[in-house]
Amino acid sequence: MKKKLAKWAVTMLAGAMLALPATGNTVSASGEAKSQVQEETKKIENELNYIYIDEAELDVGAVQSIVLSWGERTSDIRSIDLVVENEDGSRTVLNSQKRVDNLFLYENSFEQGAYHVAELSVTTDLGTKTFTAEDLEINAYFGVGEKVNDSVKSDYIEMESQSGEEAVVTIETANAATVEKNVADALSEQAVPFDKNKKERSNSNLVIVLDPGHDASKHSGATANGVREEVVTLKIAEYCKEVLEQYSGVSVYMTRTDGNCPYPDTNSIDDILKRVEWAKTKDADVFISFHINSSVSGAAQGAEVYYPQGEENAQELAKDIVGELAKLGLKNRGDKGDDSYAVIRHSKRNGFPGLIIEHAFVSNVSDAKWFQTEENLKKLGEADAAGIIKYYGLTKDKGKWEFTGEHWKWKEGNGKYATSTWKSIDGVWYYFDTNSNMTTGWQQIGGIWYYMNSSGAMTTGWQQVGGTWYYMNSSGAMKTGWQLIGGTWYYMNGSGAMQTGWQTIGNQTYYLNESGAMATGWKLVENVWYYFNGSGYLLKGEQTIAGTKWYLDENTGALYTGWHYTAGKWYHHTNEGLKQTGWQFIDGTWYYMNADGVMTTGWQQIGGMWYYMDGSGAMQTGWQLIGRTWYYMDGSGAMQTGWRLLGNHWYYMNGSGAMLTGWQLISGTWYYMDESGVMTTGWQQIGGTWYYMDGSGAMQTGWKLLGNHWYYMNGSGAMLTGFQAIGNEKFYFNASGEMQTGWQFIDNVWYYFNTSGYLLKGEQTIGGQKWYLDANTGALYTGWHFTDGKWYYHTSEGLKQIGWQKIGGTWYYMNGSGAMQTGWQTIGNQKYYFDGSGAMVTGWQLIDNVWYYFENSGELNNQPSSKPPVNDAIKVYYEIAGDSSVTVEQMVNYYKKSGKPYPAEALKAGGAATIEEFCQIYYEECETEGIKAEVAFIQSMIETGFLQFGGSVKIEQFNFAGLGATGNGVSGNSFENVRMGIRAHVQHLKCYANTEPLKNECVDPRWGAWLRGKAPYVEWLSIPNNPNGTGWAGDADYAAKILKGIQDMKKIEVSMN
């Protein structure tokens, strides 16, 4: 008797809400475009196979699972969204969590209530079409925390044939075993290609499972005319098996070999499904169930064979079998495609075709005769076998192996080589290519990959190839995607390689252990706990697991407890994994986590206050040296600013909290903090200077009476010492800063300060005695006094002397300011000469190599009656080296008397903008090297024509002595500035004058050791007059010109300041 399973339906839920398009991405279609989309969308037809609801009733918070099967081929399906509606009308949109071919998995948890599947939205390349439950003719309900009202419960499975009727399945029914046991089954028991159903697989190893319908112990079949279905189906199957086993490459199994039920604890449908599942364990290529038909009408007769609808190969096999039965004389009722039978549907889902042979009608007297004799039963079995043999082209000759010297081939019994085909030889599958060669290694056959080992045998099960694991199913096909193997899920990538470790597949993250097994539940991975739900999804965020709320990392899913370091940042989690934020007191230490939970370090502004966390994140208190700056945090960690009394000391922290040291201007007052930041008071020596801070630390200025002494601090607070002008008066403070009064001996000079500390000046009566204190300095000078480069003479009372003074038997002359005079002086109408000590000379005097006569009164006598004491045989020469006998002023005036304009513009570029600067440089350079300034200066005037140049040497060369200018247009040497040009001149004179070393670095390009000391006198600068045969110039009058210039310059008077 045939058992027909009605169309199925079930549900499951997915946590993901329907993803809405981003704002701004909506495009308004034109009327024509809309019409086209609507027309194309109409092409999306209802292809629902079933919906499977895992639990008809479940607890609140538990996860409901729903599997949906749609159509046969789903390559054009982008997505299918499920809408689940509560009894109050609220809806939840579920996106599929996993997809395998035409199966879609949904998961979600719900609040209390009764729910049903309200709509399906199918999206393809043509668009999206929504089907209501009414459109789909489904009635799929489930309850959460309560039972579904009987009036809305899902329909039950109908066990018997229900032509044209459909039933919706829920798992709560008594026939629950007729549907997939769980979601894993629903995903694994998908249909696979019937890769051994084609005739071209002739003589390949074929596994045929024969199923004698019903059994005598529990599931009896049809009975009529003395015939029992469960008895005759066993006999027919045995005769069929006996014939088939005579053929090459065929393995035949029977689901039962006696009258007992192979699965006595099952109902009829469950028994059928168990038999099909057992056939799968034998790697069945085809499942053929033997039955006899029955009808309420005794007229019905003939044989018919049912096959999976749409499978052409299975239909051809059915046609061959019913054709052989018809040859016996039975009416041919034909081959019929029908997926409503449990045998056919479940076989298809297990990867092989299932056929039902209805041999004849036991209810028909004529047909019943075929079941009443052993001979007829044998004929029926042999006819079944003949149809199978015909379809598969089976032969009895097994053939033999042949080796060509390079390849193995299989030669069939008919003399042909197996070519482009599978071949089962001695229970082992081989594949022979287009050249009839046995293949090894990876082979893609019919779009499917297989692996043949080195002996050519097709492998099945787990295979490690090149260090990578692959899984081949029972037909040898390499599997990809999700695979349920031995109750464990594995994932193979597109190349079939088994994956391990973390994997992102679709929109979900999974963890596959080292053996490739998908993890579920709690899993410790690299010392971190993660949780994977029953489908292997990595859970993230807040999750309730086994009644406990856990906080899993929103990004990684990790259950972090305590401290956790990731991506260069520290986090702290509660024992339940909750990431902590804000202030946290952990193991006796305060930490601050920002809004993202990141442990902060360094400076943090929190609630308007600044805090500092060290490198470990610990909040700091007390003194902290950060960088090179000290800060102070109070007991709460808050950074302090402004004045703070800590211990017995005051400190000041600026607005950024930095402890200040050194001088600080705070609110208009200066304070000094020592190097430890302590505010100082009292006397403080800072940078070698004394300051005074009062009790508040404020730096003092102006007059301060401290103890019995007055002190004065200037505007910067520095204690003054020595002479100080304050206001309109002058004071003197000793080294301790104490203001002095009375007579004070300072730097070997006496001064007098009154009781107010004022320095007295001029004529003063002190202690009844008159004293003369310097009107400018207040100094009490007596006797000789040298100041500002000049000598003065004072009486014992300090009176400065002027005019003629006879001191120690010698006459001196002091000008109007009291300065002692030297050199030539015109006093009255008479000329006098005072030597370097200021003494007036008398008698004959040799002055600048010229003899003069002075009367006893010191007056110059230009017509003396006597001659100077000079021997005419002795020649007096003018030495080049020695002290200068002219002043810078005389040099300047000598130039000005020449009437020549000073070339200021040209010489300014060299550093001598005026004649005064020019002469000063000559004087300084001569003084440095010990050369008489008058010699060098006059020589330069002769050489340059009073700086007018005009010859070969140009003014911009700064060459003032014609160095290197040897005539014939040779311009000579050049120097970088005026001073360097003058220095070279002076050094060249020194080269001639003596053998003394230079004081400055040599810049004279004409310097030569062979010239040293060859012309110590001006007279010898003329080569003709030099006994050494050398000199400066070839002109015999060269020296006379220089000497004449010197005499003229010396006659120039200087001011008597």
Automatic annotation (TrEMBL):
<dbReference type="Pfam" id="PF19127">
    <property type="entry name" value="Choline_bind_3"/>
</dbReference>
<feature type="repeat" description="Cell wall-binding">
    <location>
        <begin position="499"/>
        <end position="518"/>
    </location>
</feature>
<feature type="repeat" description="Cell wall-binding">
    <location>
        <begin position="640"/>
        <end position="659"/>
    </location>
</feature>
<dbReference type="Pfam" id="PF01520">
    <property type="entry name" value="Amidase_3"/>
</dbReference>
<dbReference type="InterPro" id="IPR050695">
    <property type="entry name" value="N-acetylmuramoyl_amidase_3"/>
</dbReference>
<feature type="repeat" description="Cell wall-binding">
    <location>
        <begin position="439"/>
        <end position="458"/>
    </location>
</feature>
<feature type="repeat" description="Cell wall-binding">
    <location>
        <begin position="459"/>
        <end position="478"/>
    </location>
</feature>
<dbReference type="InterPro" id="IPR002508">
    <property type="entry name" value="MurNAc-LAA_cat"/>
</dbReference>
<feature type="domain" description="MurNAc-LAA">
    <location>
        <begin position="276"/>
        <end position="389"/>
    </location>
</feature>
<dbReference type="GO" id="GO:0008745">
    <property type="term" value="F:N-acetylmuramoyl-L-alanine amidase activity"/>
</dbReference>
<feature type="repeat" description="Cell wall-binding">
    <location>
        <begin position="801"/>
        <end position="820"/>
    </location>
</feature>
<feature type="repeat" description="Cell wall-binding">
    <location>
        <begin position="620"/>
        <end position="639"/>
    </location>
</feature>
<keyword id="KW-0732">Signal</keyword>
<feature type="signal peptide">
    <location>
        <begin position="1"/>
        <end position="24"/>
    </location>
</feature>
<feature type="repeat" description="Cell wall-binding">
    <location>
        <begin position="519"/>
        <end position="538"/>
    </location>
</feature>
<dbReference type="GO" id="GO:0009253">
    <property type="term" value="P:peptidoglycan catabolic process"/>
</dbReference>
<dbReference type="GO" id="GO:0030288">
    <property type="term" value="C:outer membrane-bounded periplasmic space"/>
</dbReference>
<feature type="repeat" description="Cell wall-binding">
    <location>
        <begin position="600"/>
        <end position="619"/>
    </location>
</feature>
<feature type="repeat" description="Cell wall-binding">
    <location>
        <begin position="680"/>
        <end position="699"/>
    </location>
</feature>
<keyword id="KW-0677">Repeat</keyword>
<feature type="repeat" description="Cell wall-binding">
    <location>
        <begin position="419"/>
        <end position="438"/>
    </location>
</feature>
<feature type="repeat" description="Cell wall-binding">
    <location>
        <begin position="479"/>
        <end position="498"/>
    </location>
</feature>
<feature type="repeat" description="Cell wall-binding">
    <location>
        <begin position="841"/>
        <end position="860"/>
    </location>
</feature>
<dbReference type="Pfam" id="PF01832">
    <property type="entry name" value="Glucosaminidase"/>
</dbReference>
<feature type="repeat" description="Cell wall-binding">
    <location>
        <begin position="660"/>
        <end position="679"/>
    </location>
</feature>
<keyword id="KW-0378">Hydrolase</keyword>
<feature type="repeat" description="Cell wall-binding">
    <location>
        <begin position="740"/>
        <end position="759"/>
    </location>
</feature>
<dbReference type="GO" id="GO:0004040">
    <property type="term" value="F:amidase activity"/>
</dbReference>
<protein>
    <submittedName>
        <fullName>N-acetylmuramoyl-L-alanine amidase</fullName>
        <ecNumber>3.5.1.28</ecNumber>
    </submittedName>
</protein>
<dbReference type="InterPro" id="IPR018337">
    <property type="entry name" value="Cell_wall/Cho-bd_repeat"/>
</dbReference>
<feature type="repeat" description="Cell wall-binding">
    <location>
        <begin position="821"/>
        <end position="840"/>
    </location>
</feature>
<dbReference type="Pfam" id="PF01473">
    <property type="entry name" value="Choline_bind_1"/>
</dbReference>
<feature type="repeat" description="Cell wall-binding">
    <location>
        <begin position="580"/>
        <end position="599"/>
    </location>
</feature>
<dbReference type="InterPro" id="IPR002901">
    <property type="entry name" value="MGlyc_endo_b_GlcNAc-like_dom"/>
</dbReference>
<feature type="repeat" description="Cell wall-binding">
    <location>
        <begin position="700"/>
        <end position="719"/>
    </location>
</feature>
